Amino acid sequence: MRAPIGDFDDVRPAPDCLDLLTPPVAEAVRAWTGPVPADQILYVDTDPAIADTAVFVEHHGPGLLDASANCVVVAGRRGEATTLAACLVKSANRVDVNGVVRKHLGARKASFAPMDTATGDTGMEYGGITPVGLPADWALLVDAAVVDTPWVLIGSGRRRGKIIMPGKAFAQLPNAVVLEGLGLPTT
User: Fold this and answer.
1) Element (H or E) spanning 162, and its range?
2) Which among 140, 175, 130 has a CA at the least distance from the CA of 21?
3) Torsion of Cα atoms, 7 then 181 then 97 then 178, to 10°
4) pLDDT in tens, 117-131
5) Which of 151, 128, 131 lies closest to 3, judged by CA?
6) HSE (CB half, 13 Å, CA atoms) of 11?
7) In this structure, is the dihedral angle defined by the CA atoms of residues 167, 172, 175 and 178, taken in order, positive or negative?
8) Worst-scoring range by mean pLDDT, 11-20, 57-66, 160-169?
9) Residue ranges of the YbaK/aminoacyl-tRNA synthetase-associated domain (predicted)?
10) Quick one: fold of 11-182?
């Protein structure tokens, strides 16, 4: 099987390799429903030593930078209440935490969640957090540019391996909210 983007040696439908995913990601793939079929969620095996975006793109194809997205966990606070959410933006962008995220969460203050909170609450590895399989009570804020991308490369829940899926599929994930301007240019 060949990946629709990038240059990968090992490409398989994610439902055929659930054992390579973290438990929450595997369960989400197993329970997948909606207009995008589960066999369009692809798992590609990758070396965790080159998982960081710049090195990864250099190794697997320069076109991947525009076709990849990062998922980050944010914490919105208002008084004593903290709301955790995930944000998905294209890899070349940064999340508008103090604007779009703070406003959408109705928070007085928003910031990136501490690493131990992000990994502990998701059951995923740092550097591999993915929007597939997030906790059921979290909002998933998705930049509209991600949804408009034909195929998107994201984390798999681990530093080893990635998932490729149609951009439109992110809008069908539980608690997904598609927002314009969530991702800001890094320059």
Assistant:
1) strand 162-166
2) 130
3) -70
4) 999 999 999 989 999
5) 151
6) 17
7) positive
8) 57-66
9) 66-169
10) YbaK protein (3.90.960)
Q: What is the pLDDT of residue 57?
A: 85
Cα–Cα dist 151/147, whole Å:
9
Closest among 178, 131, 177, 170 to 151, alpha carbons compared: 170
User: In sequence order, what DSSP letters do the residues of 62-98 get, joined into one string?
Assistant: TTHHHHBEEEEEEEEEETTEEEEEEEEEETTEEE-II
Tokens of 105: 């969460």
For the stretch 9-34, pLDDT in tens is 999 999 999 999 999 999 999 999 98
Tell me the mean pLDDT in the region 95-104. Answer: 95
| Residue 127 DSSP one-character state | T
